Structure formats: C-alpha cells, structure tokens
UniProtKB/TrEMBL annotation:
Keywords: DNA-binding, Transcription, Transcription regulation. This is TetR/AcrR family transcriptional regulator. Residues 6-66 form the HTH tetR-type domain. Transmembrane segments: none annotated. Residues 29-48 bind DNA. One of its GO terms (molecular function) is DNA binding. Pfam families: TetR_N. It comes from the Bacteria.
C-alpha cells in the first residue's frame, strides 16, 4: 500500500478509536466512521471491510506499541525502579482517563466469538505483558532495587487492577485517589524501605 494509503488507514484507526472509546464496539457503525473521518463510503471500504476489521487493526497497533516497552530501557541500563516509576505514573493517568479507554469495546468485541473469531489476541497481549513485566521485576530483584517477590503474582495484581479501574472508569467517576492507592501499594510491594 502507498504511503498515502497507510496514512489514511492510520487516520481511520485514530478516529475510530475515539468512537469505540465513546460508544463501545457494538454501537459503532461504518457510517459513524465515515462521518467522523469525512471519508466517502467507498473511501472507507477501500481500506476496511467492516468495523471488526478496523477494531482488530486498532488492537494490533496497541500490541505493537506495547512491544518490548521495557526491554529497550533495560538494555540501555535504565534503572528498573525508574522504569517502574515511569510506567506506574502513566498508568495513574490512564486509569482516570475514561474518554480514551477501549475497555468496554474490547469486552464487547472479544466476548463475541462470531466477531473476534477466537483469535486469542487478548491472551497474546496478556502473555506478552506478563513476559515484559516478569523481565522487569526479575531485573529489579537482581539489582536489589526490588524486593524478592513472585513476579507472576505481582504482574497479575498490576494488570487486573489496572484493567479493572479502566473498565470501572467508564461506569462511574474515578478520582485520582484510587489509582494513586493502587500504584502506591505496587511500589510498596516492590521497592525496599528507604532508610
């Protein structure tokens, strides 16, 4: 595909992401996306056949963005505690940003086998995130920046509390105190007491 075609596909996904965050997956139509992007139906269908294909492209791009988020920093000798601090600060902001959360749309899409066709993307994302977090936690334990913990258990606590708050932020107001308490507890689990 040409550079212009790639740019158009990215634009479609960017605008569709906003719609999916607003409405969930099931309520977004190709017509909604045409209106949001100001593309003709033919222009939109030239790139994507349906909303499921667009949503799948968005989720795939999210996975690619997440790819090796920590490993590059670890390779560049960034301290594990600094990486942890950066990601937990970002998570705090994301947990209260219900406007950009795809949690409801992801639930709708992946809980409907006829749409997701059981592609296992969520499981792949979970396993990839687990690998990244485990490497970070093990690195932090090796350098004595982190306490000795069960990396898989800490990862599950992080991912499911983060995703839970993201989901609930779509259903009720979430203040900054909830994400701060969660990230504070994660820091207490991992970081040794400062003397």
């Amino acid at each position: 595909m040409s550079a212009k075609g790639d740019k158009t596909k990215k634009f479609i996904c960017s605008e569709a992401h906003k719609l999916f965050a607003e409405k969930g997956f099931k309520k977004v139509t190709m017509q909604d996306i045409c209106e949001r992007t100001r593309l003709s139906r033919g222009g939109l269908y030239r790139h994507y056949e349906n909303t499921a294909q667009i949503f799948s492209a968005i989720v795939s791009a999210m996975l690619a963005d997440q790819e090796d988020e920590f490993s590059e920093k670890i390779r560049n000798n960034v301290r594990a505690s600094e990486i942890l601090d950066d990601v937990l600060n970002r998570y705090e902001e994301e947990m209260i940003d219900s406007g950009s959360s795809l949690s409801v749309a992801i639930y709708e899409y992946f809980s409907s086998p006829d749409l997701s066709q059981g592609d296992g993307t969520i499981l792949q994302q979970y396993l990839h995130s687990k690998k990244m977090w485990t490497e970070l936690i093990e690195c932090g334990m090796c350098t004595k920046e982190f306490k000795t913990v069960d990396p898989a258990a800490v990862f599950d606590l992080i991912v499911f509390s983060y995703q839970g708050v993201r989901m609930y932020s779509r259903l009720m107001p979430i203040g900054k105190d909830i994400p701060r308490r969660i990230t504070g507890q994660i820091r207490q689990l991992l970081l040794p007491e400062r003397e």
